[in-house]
Amino acid sequence: xxxxxxxxxxxxxxxxxxxxxxxxxxxxxxxxxxxxxxxxxxxxxxxxxxxxxxxxxxxxxxxxxxxxxxxxxxxxxxxxxxxxxxxxxxxxxxxxxxxxxxxxxxxxxxxxxxxxxxxxxxxxxxxxxxxxxxxxxxxxxxxxxxxxxxxxxxxxxxxxxxxxxxxxxxxxxxxxxxxxxxxxxxxxxxxxxxxxxxxxxxxxxxxxxxxxxxxxxxxxxxxxxxxxxxxxxxxxxxxxxxxxxxxxxxxxxxxxxxxxxxxxxxxxxxxxxxxxxxxxxxxxxxxxxxxxxxxxxxxxxxxxxxxxx
Length: 309
What we know:
The protein has 309 residues and is an alpha/beta fold. It is built from 14 helices and 10 strands. α10 (206-215) runs antiparallel to α11.
């Protein structure tokens, strides 16, 4: 049976992530060191030891997550795990997926997301943007509530049926939250983020990100990568670039992306990164799907055994 690979985005990071595997698997430890060399500071130490405040800075979170995620699929391959048939990454995780698929050189990708993080942070002054998760409303109702709120606010992540994240200007997001509550949302959860991702407030970062993407050499992906912006696979490297740039200001269509992969006959997935956020979303999207993590030695061993059957 085919196996797909899912790569989490920003927010899943944790100090010490995957370090028990790095202590015994040289290929992962090497990725940490290569990433440190690429960005010019000791990223490996921050991944292993923190502090949390440093790891949670956007320009550090992004290369750290990519290094861990790509390193974990390296370990999977080195241990003889099933070859990936298809992949997708949530937001930042899309860069990890493309790197794992051979579309980007690892060092180039680490530098790219480090700079992407800086650009995103600089696009909106601290405190002027906001994000919130809206639970228990249909997608079109949430979009209508955002329109009703006025200002810059819109759906940013279509994560699963009944779970949508909105993003935009702080006051507009608060008005949209109130509108969603009035419309019957089961729960609304303001998110502790410094950057309102995947909305028009990120537009000032677009020109510079476009220049960075143009400067990075891309190769045809060795496995299909379903991209966030339209839940489809790009035909060529130019299409990959175009979709990565559009992703900056467009919502992550994660639910549709997972449905696309399931529609290709893929029902087993490996979550390559810390935590189990994507596994939880997959269960809400399609209960037939089986998603297993590989972020600890025990989880890695268990998933290798289960998916070898």
